[in-house]
Specification:
This protein is mainly beta. It has two helices and 14 strands, in the order H-H-E-E-E-E-E-E-E-E-E-E-E-E-E-E. Strands 1, 2, 3, 4, 5, 6, 7, 8, 9, 10, 11, 12, 13 and 14 form a 14-stranded antiparallel sheet that branches. The radius of gyration is 24 Å and the shape is elongated. The relative contact order is 0.18.
């Protein structure tokens, strides 16, 4: 699949390069942009226990650190002010900071954190895909366009993101009564809590996908037909997160418990993007971009099963939740015909 998508982009690039004069004279524009990205931040995972039909409290929270190196490709194709924008990327496997696991197991005092562990986090894989339609509407006089020009950018986009993590080699402090000889729960930092040294805890795997629909507004500034600056803000009109969390109970990862969570909501996500682009030779540009993405807490259902089984059962006594905050730095070289559009 990676090779097919890359081949399509390269074929379009070669075709348009050959017929570039006819292409641009007709008002069409095209750009292709290979890029390297570094993403960092945190993905949060929650479990809420239901006390009654209207009240619930936080039972568990896992914080998965994101340190993601990736390579990608983006392209846009359009006519005059309108373009279709696409982008995809694939992340590299590697260490991704730590994963922090916290539990509030005391049913009588929900403010006491009874269990806490720190686990080495590995990003096994990641990928992303985006497609959208944008309009770039100029609002400065054409007479000064060689010195300065500006335009409003409006867009609607669909974005998909996938992460696959493993947390292992953890150290933990457990104060719930299931892990101590006590008949009551104590805080994790109590002297009575059970301490598990590094490597004694079993691994946790976590797979998560995000799907978002955004509408965006931005401004594109161009100076001396050489330097371009984009400032863009997207509002999420729909967000969906689906995840599978596997807690193993042996080192071989053959037995354990799987939790399938599904959440969705509206107007709880967004992102801000800025990009600086310098045209250094003919149709070639070099640039850097910064993307800040956030997902406020959304809640949904949770299902569970034993790892060896195939079918899930609804957990009617708890609900799931997810949130995220990530930063991404992009470095790229871009080939463009006529007016370029910014992709991320």
């Amino acid at each position: 699949m990676k090779r097919l998508i890359t081949f399509i982009y390269i074929a379009c690039f070669l075709t348009l390069s050959i017929f570039s004069n006819r292409f641009t004279d007709a008002g069409f524009h095209f750009s292709i942009k290979p890029l390297y990205s570094y993403e960092f931040g945190v993905l949060d995972e929650f479990v809420f226990a239901k006390e009654d039909s209207s009240d619930e409290y936080k039972l568990s929270e896992l914080n998965w650190t994101v340190k993601n190196h990736s390579m990608g490709l983006s392209a846009d194709f359009g006519w005059k002010w309108v373009s279709v924008d696409t982008a995809f990327s694939f992340g590299f496997s590697g260490k991704s900071g730590d994963m922090y696991d916290s539990d509030w197991q005391d049913p009588f005092n929900h403010s006491i954190k009874t269990n806490y562990s720190i686990n080495e986090n590995k990003l096994n894989k990641s990928c992303s895909f985006e497609i959208g339609i944008s309009g770039d509407i100029p609002f400065t006089p054409e007479s000064i366009s060689n010195i300065f020009s500006a335009s409003f950018v409006q867009s609607i986009k669909y974005a998909y993101k996938y992460y696959d993590f493993s947390g292992s080699n953890g150290e933990g402090w457990y104060g719930d009564k299931d892990h101590t000889p006590l008949s009551y729960d104590v805080p994790f930092d109590s002297e009575e809590a059970m301490h598990y040294t590094k490597g004694q805890l079993f691994a946790i795997d976590y797979k998560r996908e995000h799907q978002n629909c955004f509408i965006g507004e931005g401004i594109n500034l161009r100076f001396l037909n050489r330097v371009e600056l984009l400032l863009n803000y997207d509002i999420g009109i729909y967000s969906s997160i689906v995840s599978i969390d596997t807690h193993y109970n042996n080192k071989e990862k053959t037995t354990g418990k799987d939790f399938f969570d599904k959440m969705s909501d509206n107007l709880l996500s967004g992102r801000f993007y800025s990009e600086l682009d310098y045209k250094f030779w003919k149709n070639l540009h070099i640039g850097v971009g910064y993307l800040y993405t956030w997902q406020n807490l959304i809640k949904g259902t949770t299902h569970f099963k034993y790892h060896q089984l195939s079918s899930y059962s609804l957990d009617s006594e708890s609900s799931s939740g997810s949130s995220a905050k990530t930063h991404t730095l992009n470095f790229f070289i871009q080939y463009s015909l006529e007016d370029s559009h910014f992709i991320y």
